[in-house]
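Exercise 4. Each item below gives a protein and its sequence. For each, produce the structure-token representation.

Item: Pleckstrin homology domain-containing family G member 7 (Oncorhynchus tshawytscha).
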Amino acid sequence: MGKYTNKTLLTKGTTTRTASDIEKYLLKEQIQDWRDTDFQKYKDCSLEEFLRDCDSSQLMSDCDPQDYKRQEAIWELFTSECVYFLDQLMVLKEVFLATLTNLQMRDYLSDVDTWRLFANLNELCLVSFGFLTSLLHVIKESWEIPVAGAGPTLLELLHKAIQESICHCLQKYCLNYSTALFYLDSLKHREDFGSYVKWCERNQECRRLQLRDLLVAPLQRLTRYPLLLRNVGKRSRTEEEESALQSVVEQVDTSICDLEGKVKWLDNYQKVKLLRDALVWLPVWERDKRAFIPENLKHLLKAVTLENLIAHRCLLHEGKLVLTENAKLHDVYLFLFDDFLLITKIKRNKKKSTGPEQNPLRLPQNQELDQLLKEGCTFTVLDQPISLDRLQLRSVDQLNAAASGLSQSFIIMHQNRYQQCIAAFILQAPSEAVKRVWMSEIEGAVTTLNSQQPPRVKSSSLWVESSQI
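Answer:
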């Protein structure tokens, strides 16, 4: 997506739209009020205040202290859901999404993809509203406060809401979360989009929170459910009720674990897909200056392509190190896959790409690769992939490191099938801690790979070994 200046135009047909036009339109925009509900009235109330408001304070004196604590735990679940629904989801929906939708109906920002930014936000609002309505009904029934119609018990409600709607909808949103952040970053340089975001963030309903702060709210809510539900379970009346609530907690925990698995897979898939296009595999006559290939024969060596070599592999670890080569130091970037290691040189390009669209709930990792891919860098593979069952790792101790001037360094040796060393790479890490992490990751990957392969058995005439050379 190209850059936009203050004169940049977003066009549809022959209609010209500028950031100034958006600002003028937004002067007349009104945000719909969504706070005229019982949820707004109760969200900052204590249980005692709620009962007093419902003329049920006399019941408190007759209530068992342990049961009252249980009701307080349920009330905390309710009020925290009110805050999530009213102060986060509905702010996103009415201030940001509704405003953007109104703008697009008038041909402003028509190229902005609302799904990539907000995913299934409308569905989340409906689910949360339904859960709040049912939960308030349960709370009132438990205190014998008159309500219209019969409703489910607390356990029935939690089982149904958690299993059938809440976790499913939150998973869908979370799987789009990182995509939303990267898409937001790709739009932030546009003045027309910036005018829209600034106008929304200045709205008093945002309470000084930025769009990025609000987008993370559903993820935080998902991880908070187990804590709130366990708190209710600890104060259960019977062991059966506690056991039933524990099964609800386990449903949420399972959902979170399942989501983390999807996140890891999606993160690896997206990153490897982008990396595949950024890797440069030099032909043998460029990689090895001793290899002379006449021009009329080079086409014979281009038949084999390595672009898809990493397509179905798992990227375990990556990061920047320094390579000592011909008495010179070179910045290199290493990619550790589940069965081989790539050592590459970084080539920075002036032209920037849109950057990787990561997965939701992404676990803390080295963000340097994301930035390099975002800048459109390429990675030229040195030598050849080093199969992990052909790799030997050696740490350079402090004495030898000091003598050679190679602090925090280690050596990677590449052996052929006859255990002859055909290449060696002396690599320096920026710190001793980073060095230990790299050595641990490589050793772990080698151990895992070797445990999955049949052992090599030495005989008098040959080696029985893996097919990876």
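Check: The chain is about 50% helix and 15% strand.
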